[in-house]
Amino acid sequence: MSAIKLAIVGVGKIVHDQHLPAIAANPDYQLIASASRNHTVDGIPGFKSIEEMLAQMPEIEAVSLCMPPQYRYSAAHAALTAGKHVFLEKPPGATLSEVADLEALAASKGLTLFTSWHSRYAPGVQPAKAFLAANAPASMHVIWKEDVRHWHPNQDWIWQAGGLGVFDPGINALSIVTEILPERIFLSGASLEFPDNREAPIAADLHFQSAGALRVHAEFDWRQTGKQSWDVLVETAKGQVKLSDGGSRLWIDGVEQPLEKEAEYPSLYRVFADLVKAGKSDVDVAPLRHVADAFMLGKRKVVDAFHD
Ligand code: NAP
């Protein structure tokens, strides 16, 4: 099969940090265009909108949609309607129903839809999953605390309804949790803290349970200065599993495990190419469903206004 003629839509931080290097290093892709209102990618034609790009470059076979989640559905709908395979950045959309609609549209057209969850490809995740498959978890504690001013400067969309606030990083933790746990969990209680002047939460405290005895506590906070935490701690009869740095380091019973080197986005693009070749989709909304449940069940507390 010849290289997939790919276009990228919504050129911002993650496109430059991760998508462009991963695509350039993968011979399964030829990046031939971009669409973004204000930004372009050096060396390829740039269009102001996906509609204009699809009309002028019918040879495009697939698109990666990297704009904020509130604006992803209409672009994905336009791409699928035009017969293109679609890679969705995380979170896959602003609502569960719009992702279900895209899934049905992709299936009806025989196209690939991929809900990418990059943190699941952190090198410690599969070894942790394998250990927990053999050693049942008794409890889990997730601590995802970072400084929003450092990681998300000038990103207004993240504070707007549908931008998810602290769940934008927190959903990465939930993508790991839902990947490594051997049993399903569901939200049993939550509290969300909303700055007085924002539409999305700055902190969340979540409690989950399984049908059995498993309990999961997750703390997300965007006000963390100093040491940043992206940790998942799991207690088992054979000791503690500790995933740190977003899944890139792993300790089991106090012993750090040797891991492959980090390759989250190269892995995502490998999986997407495999899906396209196989004529399949991979649509997993489990992390987004937990976030939706938190907005549905969570108690709301208004806290101090947040200023950049
Ligand atoms: P970003 O830097 O704000 O870039 C998003 C781009 O989307 C913007 O540069 C903008 O380009 C375009 N866009 C289209 N419609 C927009 C609108 N109405 N409002 C704002 N921008 C719009 O954001 P990002 O950090 O790359 O994040 C994009 C997605 O990737 C998010 O879903 C995020 O969760 C995910 N992600 C981000 C990271 C990270 O480290 N930043 C990591 C993993 C995943 P134009 O102005 O040219 O249209």
UniProtKB/TrEMBL annotation:
MF GO annotations: galactose 1-dehydrogenase (NADP+) activity; galactose 1-dehydrogenase activity; L-arabinose 1-dehydrogenase (NAD+) activity; nucleotide binding
InterPro entries in alphabetical order: Gfo/Idh/MocA-like_OxRdtase_N, Gfo/Idh/MocA_oxidrdct_glycsds, NAD(P)-bd_dom_sf
Domain Gfo/Idh/MocA-like oxidoreductase N-terminal intervals: 4-114
SUPFAM superfamilies documented for this protein: NAD(P)-binding Rossmann-fold domains (SSF51735)
Pfam families membership: GFO_IDH_MocA
Keyword terms, alphabetized: Oxidoreductase
EC number: 1.1.1.120, 1.1.1.46, 1.1.1.48
First-level EC class: oxidoreductase
Name of this chain's protein: L-arabinose 1-dehydrogenase
Lineage: Bacteria, Pseudomonadati, Pseudomonadota, Betaproteobacteria, Burkholderiales
